[in-house]
Amino acid sequence: MKIDAKVQSISKLKDYFFLVPDYQREYVWKPDDEVEQFLIDIENEYSPDAKEQRNYFLGSIIIANNDRCFDVVDGQQRLTTIMLSLCVFRDLLKKETLNSAQKNYLQIIENLLYNFDIESGETRVRLELQYEESHDYLTALIQEQPYNGVRSPSIVRMQDAYTKILRHFQLYAGIDELIDFAKYCLTKIELVVIESQDLSSALKIFETINQRGAGLNAMDLVKNLLFSNTKESDFAKIKDIWREIIQNLQECSEDQKPLRFLRYFLSARYYNGILREDDIYKWIISSEGKQATQYEKHPVDFAKEIRCMSKRYSELVNATELQRDGCLYPHVTNIGFINKYKSRQHLILLLSLGSNADVPAIEYLAKQIESFFFFSSTLRIQAKTNESLFVQWAEKLRNLTTIDEIACVIEKTMLPYLLDKVGVFKAEFITLSHGVYNPLYRLRYVLGKIENTVLEKLHSPVCGHQFYNDLQIEHILPQSPKNGSIPLEFLSEEEYYSYVYRLGNVTLIESMINQAVNNYNDLSTDQWFYDKQSEYGKSSVCLTKLLDSKFYIGVNTALNRFKNDFQYNFTGWNKSSVEARQKILLELVFDTWRINDLRLDRVK
Question: Where is the GmrSD restriction endonucleases C-terminal domain (predicted)?
Fold first, then answer.
């Protein structure tokens, strides 16, 4: 393997024509992040008044010889930003009246952007981007041609980077100051150019350097790892598959943070235990990782599996964040409500299922996870504890495809874990504050799910998220009693408010009705609750409507049987009423969030 490494100033890049192959990642540097840091780092090293400027090391690039040009294996983000900076220098200088020396600097900059290639007989740009998202934007910019093509995310980032650099360079007071800074950038900023005679060797260098701590994005490292183990005849397959992977992650807005997907993918399907992002690449190239994934022997198959799971991941992330009805995975959406819509831990379990698992199988597992998260959230179990459990359970769920198989694993894992906590759950729930389910969308979800359980008992249609999301939270004992007067049975304000915020004291209610009942907060007599009851009876929420003790439908109807069976009949409202309603909710909770369709409090 022949390798040539040279320290080169930017001015020496005139000796190369660079090509970023189409399998490489598009331009991703953001103007207020990496580009700004690029400018700050250079600015911090530049001293306008110094007699001798210090050299500044910008980093390294890895290139492979490819018939009169060089494929860029690593460093394309840095090189693209350098070219954008040179374009800015050129454009600013061209607006000025230059003397002969200044014109020489402009000529040097233009030669770094493009030049006549004697061998091909053509004028060529120094850096050509071949990946699809570039759409020849950089070539047009270098050649000072108007660009009216597609504005892909990559092009938008290049345009934003150009603008950021332009505004920064415009801070220099005059042409002399700008020329001095350009001279510094051309002669004192240095790169290590690592040159290999072929692509395979360059990819191996890239892998070795990053294996030893350069710390690049593990997702990019995996992509290059696949290319380095793939026959060149299969490069197009890997390129197309990888483009689909990135598109899948873009569809759930996670393409800028792909490590989370990669970590969950590996934890779900290969790694046994909790895999940290910093350890992803190290594990993949370990003997254990190679044996598990078989990427060396079957790189295309491994890439296809990543593609398949990235599609599932994208669909499930979007379902988690949906916060409304109409999804292919409604129980996944429910997980977003109970465990917060930015949560992702459940995906470890859902990604573990076989690649051909159908929607009903995925939804069945999601339903069990939804129930798990309700009990876990109520008991305030930490996320790190849940993740430890999930990676253990994922090992047992790997590649399962049927509901029966999934139910069997749930029976041996999740079910006994929760059964062990039933006693603690009951004790906690009896005095539970609704604040446990903050923010409010979680509380609406909990009360809405319980309401739907009641509606099912009444053989009535259940309601969706849109209905419950529009409702407000009513505190039956008011949060702001008139004149601060509280009933005598409460020994202190602290005790009063401990009951105000119990789950048994809140109910869902329509906005207009809530405005009306807010007026009934004079607790000096019992009339306040009777007035509230008359308004509650107008609600379309069953558990709220039934707070009106006079509300009945017919004789021996499902609704009346529910009232009698659950003793959901309140003629007044006090401490005992809150406690009684909380016990009713506890009974309904076990009916609502089941595991394998079993009530946890009745499993023998």
Answer: 438-587
